[in-house]
Design goal:
The chain is of the alpha+beta class. The chain has 4 helices and 6 strands; from the N terminus they run E-E-E-H-H-E-E-E-H-H. A hairpin with a 4-residue loop joins strand 1 and strand 2. It comes from Microbulbifer celer.
């Protein structure tokens, strides 16, 4: 997969904009963070991944080239170990809606939330 023509970090809006010949994609920091390709998030093998929650307010401090094949994203929560290959970034662009809905469903199934200030306690009334 070819790299995007242009990569723009919009820190204030907490998003990364990738421009390809066939369109422009806006990837929110939270989405990129919860789908980090790091071993911390994905695990070392099938089924070992971790569901990341409470990242609603996460931002991106900076992005850097990782050779000629990827980007390294430095998040303001200290996470910086994910190397986002051009192929993986394009996958995140092309499957954004489905991946986001899957993430929300997994959060709900595990009783977790996007907001780090949200109570994990559910009141039954």
């Amino acid at each position: 997969m070819s790299p995007p023509r242009k990569v723009r970090l919009q820190k204030a809006d907490k998003q990364l904009i990738l421009q390809y010949p066939d369109g422009e994609f806006i990837l929110p920091a939270e989405y990129l963070r919860v789908y980090s390709p790091s071993a911390e998030v994905r695990g070392h093998g099938a089924g070992e991944g971790t569901l990341v929650c409470g990242k609603m307010h996460v931002g991106i401090d900076k992005v850097a080239a990782a050779g000629r094949y990827a980007l390294q994203i430095f998040f303001d929560d200290g996470h910086d170990s994910g190397i986002y290959t051009w192929d993986y970034l394009r996958e995140l662009c092309d499957q954004q809606d489905a991946k986001w809905q899957d993430y929300l469903a997994r959060l709900e199934a595990e009783g977790k939330g996007r907001d780090p200030d949200e109570s994990a306690v559910k009141f039954i009334g």
